[in-house]
């Protein structure tokens, strides 16, 4: 007997988001941030993630406005840039990951750092007003914060800080939350990653559910 | 003051995996499956994931042997195919995602199903002996199980079944575990996703940590 299952994509999204809104405690998120939180929980498959989410005041509104103005999305990993649903973007925004640029290996060696961190040096020409999405490497988020200590460095409009893991993830996100060089959202602690980050971008890009 | 942090990629992996092995209960995994479990925990940033992992007997060994023979990796999502570290693959294996094939939209309409499920119809010529990795769509996993109910359908060597979410994820993985049409691993319940799935592929591809 073949398996029978829900095959209507729109119905799957509707049921999923209804389940999340029934089970998760979303009361502390404002109307701009709530749909972002819902999609992040959806991507993680984990009610309870909301307890680790932090949005700085105005994050959702600022990030949406940046994309509406045509801001590029700067991503630390190809799994992030690849996951963004292009048809949700409001202004055919560029979605950029510089990790495979031929210059990165030399930049990493010269800077004594990871390729993920070094790749951010190539963001500088597009960084002003951008939506930054760091969903993989703690070293990339630390490197961004160090770049932004220089007042001459262009400022992004907003920062999604969701690197994942056991070395530097918690620390880099705590540093972003303490510094707040731009409106930001983080997943506190070890949790994070490309899927959750992509979900945040897709939710910022469009309110369609 | 710039932030000071671990910048040596190899050291970051070493410390991460040591932390996971110190904190997670991995005793029930055999020597082939344990490094796969460790990488899946690493990608999720979540000690405790191991309680949801199930490997059928011989999964790790069978999947490794398939890749060594040159088997392709068939992925349900571009976030999965994009995340596979090509230099870890033992035989320059093809990593394939058919989701953007121009035929998929018509197949989905014709079959009354999602694009993610319909895309699997294009796997048939490469399915025999392949490593299948479903890291996003429950509908894709259900569709695979229905395809494999036909004895004439080519058989994959092994199946990573890690779709994520709130509608069909738990159910499709339970169905895979009950059917076991090939050696398989699953994340029970709602958890799963592309990052965890990629981690499993990367661990199968090479024992290097």
From TrEMBL, chains A, B:
A molecular function GO annotation: precorrin-8X methylmutase activity
Top-level taxon: Bacteria
Record-linked Pfam families: CbiC (PF02570)
Pathway: Cofactor biosynthesis; adenosylcobalamin biosynthesis
InterPro entries: Cbl_synth_CobH/CbiC, CobH/CbiC_sf
GO biological process: cobalamin biosynthetic process
All copies of domain Cobalamin biosynthesis precorrin-8X methylmutase CobH/CbiC, residue ranges: 12-206
Name of this chain's protein: Precorrin-8X methylmutase
Organism for this UniProt entry: Salipiger aestuarii
Taxonomic lineage of the native organism: Bacteria, Pseudomonadati, Pseudomonadota, Alphaproteobacteria, Rhodobacterales
């Amino acid at each position: 007997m073949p398996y029978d299952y829900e095959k209507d994509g729109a119905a799957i999204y509707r049921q999923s988001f209804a389940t999340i809104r029934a089970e998760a405690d979303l009361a502390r998120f404002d109307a701009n941030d709530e749909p972002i939180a819902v999609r992040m929980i959806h991507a993680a498959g984990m009610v309870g993630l909301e307890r680790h989410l932090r949005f700085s005041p105005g994050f959702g509104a600022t990030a949406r406005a940046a994309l509406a103005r045509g801001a590029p999305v700067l991503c630390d990993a190809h799994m992030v840039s690849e996951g963004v649903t292009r048809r949700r973007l409001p202004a055919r925004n560029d979605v950029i990951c510089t990790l495979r640029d031929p210059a990165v290996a030399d930049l990493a060696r010269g800077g004594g750092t990871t390729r993920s961190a070094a790749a951010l040096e190539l963001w500088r020409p597009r960084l002003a007003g951008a939506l930054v999405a760091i969903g993989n490497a703690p070293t990339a988020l630390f490197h961004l914060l160090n770049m932004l200590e220089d007042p001459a460095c262009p400022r992004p409009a907003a920062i999604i800080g969701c690197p994942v893991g056991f070395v530097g993830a918690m620390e880099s996100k705590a540093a972003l939350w303490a510094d707040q060089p731009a409106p930001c959202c983080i997943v506190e602690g070890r949790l994070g990653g490309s899927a959750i980050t992509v979900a945040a971008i897709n939710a910022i890009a469009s309110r369609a559910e």
